[in-house]
Amino acid sequence: MGLVRTALFNWAFARHHQGTLVFRIEDTDAARDSEESYNQLLDSMRWLGFDWDEGPEVGGPHAPYRQSQRMDLYKDVAAKLLDAGHAYHCYCSQEELDTRREAARAAGKPSGYDGHCRDLSAEQVSEYVAQGRTPIVRFRMPDETITFTDLVRGELTFTPENVPDYGIVRANGAPLYTLVNPVDDALMEITHVLRGEDLLSSTPRQIALYKALIELGVAKGIPQFGHLPYVMGEGNKKLSKRDPQASLNLYRERGFLPEGLLNYLSLLGWSLSADKDIFSTDELVAAFDIADVNPNPARFDLKKCEAINADHIRMLDVKDFTERCAPWLKAPFAPWAPEDFDETKWQAIAPHAQTRLKVLSEITDNVDFLFLPEPVFDEPSWTKAMKEGSDALLRTAREKLESADWTSPESLKEAVLAAGETHGLKLGKAQAPVRVAVTGRTVGLPLFESLEVLGKDTTLARIDAALEKLAA
């Protein structure tokens, strides 16, 4: 979800300024990335409603847009950095690095790389090679303070001792994120980068690399950066990819609307106005200003996310609503047989269901009483509703309903109200046994509209079945 929020802000920023949005796939980790994950990513972006001007399926002047297909470019740039002295080979083993870092920490000094291999002699290099060591490539950080203006956080300064030399190519020759990301930004002429706060510490290193790339003729300039606040989960901890509520697929499966989800995510660090939480993506794009993003962490609140999604469900026109519910009205979600689904009943009940849902998946339980041969009784609901005297009430309600006008929900309401009055009960308590007898639950869609759609014969038959259950 944090990544979706980041993508959303980039998309809104680009669209607000009529800019070019570049979608780039960072898939250089062969152990983690696959064709399946690539296709899932594209599917998720499309489902959310994002479009892009350059990237997969669209193309563009800087193709290819998958980093796994750009390895020769990174290899070439790494060689140029080495030749120009902006990078060097580092032969330090992991054990040696850990030992020196621990010693630096014990001495109260910065524990980053100490520059051990910065200026090796030819003899030292030969000795390391003879030992069978394979070097990584490190970028040589300049001995200068780096200051830049963050689009979210204002002016930031990093001193040399806090930004040590860093690796850009692994010992096996595979380029690291610290190289491929800036190189792609440079070659694709990226002007603005909005990304997570967790990458802030890498920005001064990348700025130094951009300067070297400009010197080499690879880059034309340095992008402007905006580092977005963390999205926090339970216990005010950063929302981890492993947290159940972090997975986008979970929200798709539950039936969140893309527009509802994006509306809520946009509020994690930004707001349209102090008194307006519900808005469309068009309104978001029109109003989005990166300068208005709050740098403080934002907490993900599932209940508020659901409430905003419910508002967006109610904003749909009924035809759109019925179409979006379709996946949850058939296997594997629906408990009824396909031949028992009645399109006419569904179309009749849909406007009433639309006002009650937080997520689309709730539609299945809300309308199952219409399509199942008999209601599925929720036993706690049965016990709660069927108190002493419920059988007498149900018999009276059945009698009143049998003579009611079944083309009018108001007439059905009057019938149950009259039954309640006969037994000294107000409507709320009188309708509870009827609702459970007919739908199986104590809560659900508007009762009298539901009875009208279900029909007279089925309703009376279910009341009879409930009376038999009570007698037993």
UniProtKB/TrEMBL annotation:
One MF annotation (Gene Ontology) recorded for this entry: glutamate-tRNA ligase activity
Glutamyl/glutaminyl-tRNA synthetase class Ib catalytic domain sequence ranges: 2-304
One Pfam family linked to the record: Anticodon_2
Catalytic activity of the protein: tRNA(Glu) + L-glutamate + ATP = L-glutamyl-tRNA(Glu) + AMP + diphosphate
GO cellular component: cytosol
Family annotation (Gene3D superfamilies): 1.10.10.350, Glutamate-tRNA synthetase, class I, anticodon-binding domain 1, HUPs
The organism's place on the tree of life at top rank: Bacteria
Subcellular location: Cytoplasm
Motif ('KMSKS' region): 238-242
Cofactor note: Binds 1 zinc ion per subunit.
Domain Aminoacyl-tRNA synthetase class I anticodon-binding: 321-467
Name recorded for this polypeptide: Glutamate--tRNA ligase
Organism of derivation: Streptomyces griseorubiginosus
Record gene name: gltX
